[in-house]
User: Which sequence fits this backbone?
């Protein structure tokens, strides 16, 4: 479980996060949603320690991450897998080497075991056969899947996915969504997904936090999101004509 | 205040302090997050102007550079991964630079021989050509000019590589995994450069002197015996030691300054290009200053 208590972050004279409180449960797909500039990415970076929060605390399984030394934080990070928005694959390494990388750095496996584990993850994301290609030689969707395979290769307790569906076609997006849900349930991972994509939210979101101007304006599950009664959230959810049509049909019933 | 903030950014335009201002009604001091200290003066006409204490920006970079180096010189997290990365860097920094080093050294050695013959021919002994080529190659061309040239090739490569990793979140990915990104990325380059630069410089010395011998013979500037005598005349092994000490220091300057500029890149492709340029410019300037200091310390 991850808990965020009163996190404040200010850049210059602009406060991006105004005392965020949130809890992300294990075995569930937890979503952080919100408009661009609402503070989703900054909050995520504060949670994983890429940005230091000005105030507040982040707890990983009852351990205060923000109060830890750098070395202690490194130990927690060994249990974190993260899928970055652009994939963030190492371009000098092949697909297989990218997936193996966390195991090479921190694992105690020999080369054969490492390869077997990496191949298992690549099979999981349906990328068997692409292992010897370089990131530049595969499509955007495949890069996302490689990044997901790299994120899960160490069997993380905590999985972060930053805009996993951005730039993907709807079919590939569904594949990625399903993978995230399956992995979360199979390994009881505490999964945190940052997204704009309402399809994903409605499809796999168990626990949803809506951020508006640096504050959690609403939290709930995917059933409640369509009838929250919160104006900002309604504007976000029903931004497209398609969603407005769905709302009309729902009300018509 | 808005105007002051705009000017205080590192990339912002510099203004010569205006000395003709009337006495300001109000003076404020603003310290910016990037290290700049800015005096904001509200003149009697109500117009705000800004002057800088530029040294603070420099101090900020010096402080951050040493903190960066302290992180870079930490023990590698995984010895085998470090060794493999270092071998890759030896190839990238050393082997791939061999061609340009050889080419430049051959031409420079030959040109120095011709110029010496042209300037002193007829009124000083012919062996002076060999002596001059040797001294120039050992004392200055190989240990200083070769690293300056390599700062353009190797330095820009390092800065753009690390800068691209920064803007594409690859460095964030390393950090999230628990990898100490600075040490992981920079230490193999530092060690590889420290090991391979002296070899490149020794090769440059030998090729330059060889090219001088060849041109003397081919252009009939002096006999080979005279050239050989000049090469051996009044030789001091310490000159080679001095050259190698300089080379080692310059190799560290090139790799660390370039890696520093790459690592602290913010933005996109344009900023990566700017970091790459800054890496070369700063490396060359620091090499020149260090050259003067080392020469003063070791040769006087």
Assistant:
């Amino acid at each position: 479980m991850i808990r965020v208590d009163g996190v404040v972050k200010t850049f210059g004279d602009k406060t991006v996060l105004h005392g965020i409180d949130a809890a992300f449960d294990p075995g569930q797909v937890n979503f952080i949603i919100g408009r661009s500039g609402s503070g989703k990415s900054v909050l995520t970076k504060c949670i994983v320690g890429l940005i230091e929060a000005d105030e507040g605390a982040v707890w990983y399984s009852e351990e205060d991450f923000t109060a830890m030394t750098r070395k202690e934080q490194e130990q927690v990070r060994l249990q974190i897998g993260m899928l970055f928005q652009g994939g963030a694959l190492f371009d000098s390494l092949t697909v297989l080497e990218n997936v193996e990388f966390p195991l090479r750095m921190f694992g105690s496996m020999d080369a054969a075991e490492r390869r077997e584990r990496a191949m298992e993850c690549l099979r999981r994301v349906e990328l068997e056969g692409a292992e010897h290609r370089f990131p530049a030689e595969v499509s955007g969707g495949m890069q996302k899947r490689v990044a997901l395979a790299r994120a899960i290769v160490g069997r993380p307790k905590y999985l972060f996915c930053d805009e996993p569906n951005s730039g993907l076609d709807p079919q590939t997006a569904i594949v990625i969504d399903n993978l995230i849900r399956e992995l979360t349930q199979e390994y009881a991972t505490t999964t945190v997904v940052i997204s704009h994509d309402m399809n994903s939210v409605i499809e796999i979101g168990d626990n949803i936090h809506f951020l508006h101007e640096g504050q959690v304006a609403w939290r709930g599950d995917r059933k409640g999101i369509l009838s929250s009664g919160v104006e900002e959230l309604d504007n976000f959810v029903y931004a497209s004509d398609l969603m407005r049509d769905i709302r009309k049909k729902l009300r018509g019933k | 205040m808005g105007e002051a903030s705009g000017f205080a950014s590192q990339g912002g335009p510099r203004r010569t302090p205006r000395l003709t201002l009337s006495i300001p009604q109000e003076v404020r001091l603003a310290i910016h997050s990037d290290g700049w200290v800015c005096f904001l003066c509200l003149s009697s006409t109500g117009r705000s102007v800004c002057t800088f204490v530029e040294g603070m920006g420099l101090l900020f970079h010096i402080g951050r550079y040493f903190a960066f180096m302290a992180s870079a010189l930490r023990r590698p997290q995984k010895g085998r991964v470090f060794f493999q990365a270092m071998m890759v860097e030896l190839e990238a920094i050393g082997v791939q630079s061999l061609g340009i080093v050889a080419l430049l050294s051959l031409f420079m050695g030959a040109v120095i021989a011709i110029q010496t013959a042209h300037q002193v021919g007829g009124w000083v002994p012919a062996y002076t050509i060999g002596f001059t080529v040797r001294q120039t190659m050992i004392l200055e061309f190989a240990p200083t000019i070769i690293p300056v040239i390599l700062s353009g090739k190797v330095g820009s490569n390092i800065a753009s590589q690390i800068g691209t990793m920064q803007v594409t979140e690859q460095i964030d990915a390393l950090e999230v995994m628990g990898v100490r990104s600075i040490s992981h990325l920079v230490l193999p380059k530092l060690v590889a450069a420290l090991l391979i630069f002296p070899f490149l410089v020794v090769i440059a010395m030998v090729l330059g002197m060889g090219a001088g011998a060849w041109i003397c013979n081919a252009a009939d500037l002096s006999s080979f015996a005279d050239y050989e005598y000049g090469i051996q005349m009044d030789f001091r092994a310490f000159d080679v030691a001095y050259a190698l000490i300089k080379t080692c220091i310059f190799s560290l300057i090139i790799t660390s300054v370039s890696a520093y500029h790459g690592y602290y890149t913010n933005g996109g492709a344009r900023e990566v290009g700017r970091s790459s340029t800054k890496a070369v410019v700063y490396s060359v300037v620091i090499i020149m200053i260090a050259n003067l200091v080392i020469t003063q310390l070791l040769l006087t």
